Structures
1.
Amino acid sequence: MIVLFTDFGLEGPYTGQVKAVLGRDAPGVATIDLMADAPMQRPREAAYLLAAYAPWFESGAVFLCVVDPGVGTARPAEALHIDGRWFVGPGNGLFEPLLRRAGAVESFAIPVHPGISASFHGRDLFAPVAAKLANGLAPASIGLAPAAPFRRPDWPDDLAAIVYIDRYGNAMTGLRAAALAPDARLAVGGHEYRRVRTFGDAPEGAAFWYENANGLAEIAVNRGRADGLLGIAIGAPVEVAAL
Amino acid sequence: MIVLFTDFGLEGPYTGQVKAVLGRDAPGVATIDLMADAPMQRPREAAYLLAAYAPWFESGAVFLCVVDPGVGTARPAEALHIDGRWFVGPGNGLFEPLLRRAGAVESFAIPVHPGISASFHGRDLFAPVAAKLANGLAPASIGLAPAAPFRRPDWPDDLAAIVYIDRYGNAMTGLRAAALAPDARLAVGGHEYRRVRTFGDAPEGAAFWYENANGLAEIAVNRGRADGLLGIAIGAPVEVAAL
Amino acid sequence: MIVLFTDFGLEGPYTGQVKAVLGRDAPGVATIDLMADAPMQRPREAAYLLAAYAPWFESGAVFLCVVDPGVGTARPAEALHIDGRWFVGPGNGLFEPLLRRAGAVESFAIPVHPGISASFHGRDLFAPVAAKLANGLAPASIGLAPAAPFRRPDWPDDLAAIVYIDRYGNAMTGLRAAALAPDARLAVGGHEYRRVRTFGDAPEGAAFWYENANGLAEIAVNRGRADGLLGIAIGAPVEVAAL
């Protein structure tokens, strides 16, 4: 299985061309669109989302991950084998939280051939590598050499910031709920939110936080939208306060 | 064939995870995205859309339907076999117009196991059931017990309201055109619209209603958009007047 | 392979129904969403996009192309075999730049049977033809008669206008970069843009044009958005000035 995690969108020309490469190079392998609206050009916020969603997928999955504002510059390109799943994409921090939480890691550099597009590495560089790995080919056999992964030691284990706002207006943080005290309050934009188990446990119209279905602390409103609340925006800082 | 009818969107993380479950539990079964932008959190409007679009699909299709503002509460979960098609989703009225128009109906309750997510029944409860039904398994063999379907006897046979606004700005009503007099006028927001056969039969820029390709009465503008017209919004009431 | 190029969107009910037809009539044939957000109801701008993206796809691909404001009127419906690829859709100019740049062309008229929907030819007329061609059936065997293609001799070889704005805010023109002098400047809305190789070659926040990964001249901003720049909108004229 190949899982796409990008900021490419689905309707425009980018994801379709990536899938054409995957269909050509890995025919018969299922492709899943996990996210095509990862935080645009923001590898930091995207990284904590990816780390929350990737473990839900089956072992053996190959993740093609592109949130890559530095495409065409000298930033590394890499393929990481982390706890049985492959992650292919730019070396810009996108894999930092995964690495931070990993058990077994193998790490490879993807050589950038001259002559490929400078602006569409998702199609021309990463998709062919992801396809070959999904076919079960060994890294050495497809030109990947062992290399230390790109790291961001300055990034935190959990990101106390809003990392995604979904179409319902719910705001995901980069904080794992399991890492928070059961009675922790989260503050964004000067307002504090208390924890509930799920939407129906809050009064209609009330804002709260809860552990979402992938383990992240998420701010929401029962039968309403959180994205209009003061300070709720991608990248906005979140403060954690125990009661 | 599994047909998805949800308000999950395609680009965010929800539809992809549902498809991962379907791919795991029903490998080789085709999945079609019918609508991922069904009226958000509005089972009533969504219900009349679903009833208009479902009959177009082949007999044997399994519809996975999630417009579910009550997820995690005690609302029922159900699987209905209606005229040769399966419908899996929440018991909140989403299937009421289908039931109202049905011939043969079998109805089953889906047990909610403790331990599944309280906020993502689409992935954790409904998708596995839809996959198994698409595999041809019998309801009894997958833990479904016969039960009366959830009903909304207070809802009408056709909904005199705007139920969907498409990307062209056309506004679908919940009224079947075949149930309207040929010369019926529709009034929304104080303005009346007359019927034409298709776009080219109205002057450029003129607003009208017509029978869309799935049988619903739809308000549109030839080479223009109807969504800016007075009163056109999801849920807005529509009045029917014969000439 | 069937490639979809439409203004239908993915989330609403249109693309899903088209795919249901393709799955029924051409089971096992891969379908790729190239663009579902082609310039809405604008065959002229869409035509130059299609001509830039289609050659990237493999020989033998069948393109189902629908940007069709005249659906239901007497405009022709056609299937064109251009340099080894099929293009199925309305005769409204959408294929003009492809024809202008073509080597070998065969051209066929698609008969419009009475009784199909007047408003959804994508599903009811074009998809069945595309599916049959993707199955390798000969045009004559599926009722297609040779006919001259619809032409727009008044349209230019390259379109000096904005034809698409992507989700990053980059603005594609209908001009092939290879047809421009290396030091050409592009002017839109009274502002001039110079050429760079790729994003990283411009200062942060600076606007420029570059050759995108499919050969079009595209206006962009390094780590910013071009779509807020003066005059940047679909259809806006572009002036070319050599230094």
2.
Amino acid sequence: MSHLLHIDSSVRGDVSVSRRLTARSADRWRSAHPGATVTYRDLGTDPIPHLDAATGLARMVTAQKRSAAQDVSFALSAELVDEIKQATTVLLGLPLYNFGPPSTVKATVDHLIATGLSIDTETHTGLLRDTDFIVLASRGGGYGPGTPREGWDHAQTWLTHALSVTGLQPRFITAELTTADANPKMAHLKPLAAESLNKALAAIDQLWTADEDEDAA
Amino acid sequence: MSHLLHIDSSVRGDVSVSRRLTARSADRWRSAHPGATVTYRDLGTDPIPHLDAATGLARMVTAQKRSAAQDVSFALSAELVDEIKQATTVLLGLPLYNFGPPSTVKATVDHLIATGLSIDTETHTGLLRDTDFIVLASRGGGYGPGTPREGWDHAQTWLTHALSVTGLQPRFITAELTTADANPKMAHLKPLAAESLNKALAAIDQLWTADEDEDAA
């Protein structure tokens, strides 16, 4: 049975490009999976708490040794991991803030990585490999090969490495130069920005076809 | 007048290696700057809040357009930037969690990067270039050249890029393989771990000498 988990993380509300991309993706997914169910989580309005001194080790100690605060934190980890296990597909909106992921996305991943939940206790292999994880990414500038800030997008490279221990293998659809429209200094980049956005939208529209639909296969 | 800002971010309390390194650094700094003052901030016990939908744009809009929640968030940015401006030296403890910085460090940097506070409104140059920013980093595994996880430390590369817009130029002292002592599978790496820690401690002891002390110069 197909189930979608749709996660947004932008703090920019209606003007967010990543939210626009996840919304379109969710729409296309629904069209390809009539009657299937969707769970929505908004890290922008409901952030996952930081790991902190009171809760951070919840995922490193045995149940018997957990404090009350650690019990609460571990329960949230279990809830987040279960949401992913229940989903056949995850959509994550991932804007780039100050060359990294939103701190809410980091906190979420920190909760997701937990031996006994997302990593097998005995074999240490990832337990989430059955879920397709699609990232709809946006970034205000240009980070492509040959640009001055090539290699400055630390969100995507980090996310792939971090999630690998859970078995999740994110694939990315990215729209970049998203601030070109609003920034007069980037006016000359508007055509490139439009091209990047159009490519992302086209890639989204190709995500689910009858052939690729696991229910139709 | 010399002033030190000492920031910790580990969630591991007394067993934290990064806290051990910042404590030793602060001790050495005090010895080299008798009578000078120190401010301490603990992101492990008092995390900086995430940018979220209510507060995230506080640093992108004019004062007149800020909501009450954005006013609070902007005031915290101003406080954090001022702490750095007041300091001649910053020590930041930076553990590596799931191949990235603690989310509290990301949230702090998101607050620090603000036009009008840390970036000049007219010239867009960084305003924090007078502060020496030293990072005491720890990481559980090995990430050196030729190791399987070379390039997986996204905390250090990200931090350098993110802070560059403020003029801060972090320099790093790193102890790695810090979990070798506790992890039986890493027993063979204990000598390398000890070597890494000893190198970090020696580097700390070389940080402030009479010649390098700005008050003595």
